[in-house]
Amino acid sequence: MSEPAAPRLVPAAPATAEIRVSNSRFIAHAAPATTVEEARAYLAAIRAAMPDATHHVYAYRIGHGATTSEGQSDAGEPSGTAGRPVLAVVRGSGLGDIIVVVTRYFGGTLLGTGGLVRAYGDAAKAVLAVLPHAEKIDYTQLAITVPYAAYELSRRHIAAHDGTLTHETFAADVSLEVRLPTVQAAPLADALREATAGQARIETLAPPPASPG
Questions:
Q1: What pLDDT, in 10s, does the model give residues 140-165?
Q2: Looking at per-residue confidence, does 13 or 209 come out higher?
């Protein structure tokens, strides 16, 4: 019997943490980002909110497993001392669909290569320690057509399979659009066909994006 797949963890909401190292302030922000474009937009928002900062170092990790896209930048710090340690912390967390931005306000004391690596890594660890997590769930959109006599029964089956009705049309038959976790799609289809003696017609629509559960 195969082991169940490990949950895919993502940020449930943005978080912020701050550390100080030799008078420099390191302000770390972490947030959900399901695409590289979302990650870049979040970085731009942080830069706009703190335009007087010395550096805006970032690392992002979009997706999970073989479909992961990653990126990082030292943002003017010596090569390998900032973005890389932040990305290493993000990888170690197991989180996907995340961007971490560490903003530095220089305090007048040079930290050296090792000091920078520790400071940026510690700032990333600090924000991940307070970041709320959620499990990423894939959803499927179904178009379901049933006779009027099966309408209320169908609604009960949809609710029992964690489905949400997103649209209803009443014509010769009742047409329903349902959003539900992908793992529930086949069981719901089987239940509806059995309950309606094969009269239920079920079609999979273009999938909506996955989202935190």
A1: 999 999 999 999 999 999 999 989 99
A2: 13
pTM as predicted: 0.71
Rounded mean pLDDT, 71-83 = 95
Cβ of 169: how many Cβ atoms within 10 Å? 11
Beta-carbon contacts of 100 under 8 Å, excluding residues fewer than 6 positions away, are 28, 29, 30, 58, 59, 60, 86, 89, 90, 124, 127, 128
Rg, Å, the chain Cα set? 23
Other CB atoms within a 10 A radius of the CB of residue 185 amount to 21
Domains of the chain (ranges plus CATH)?
A: 9-135 (3.30.230.30), 138-212 (3.30.70.240)
pLDDT of residue 93: 93
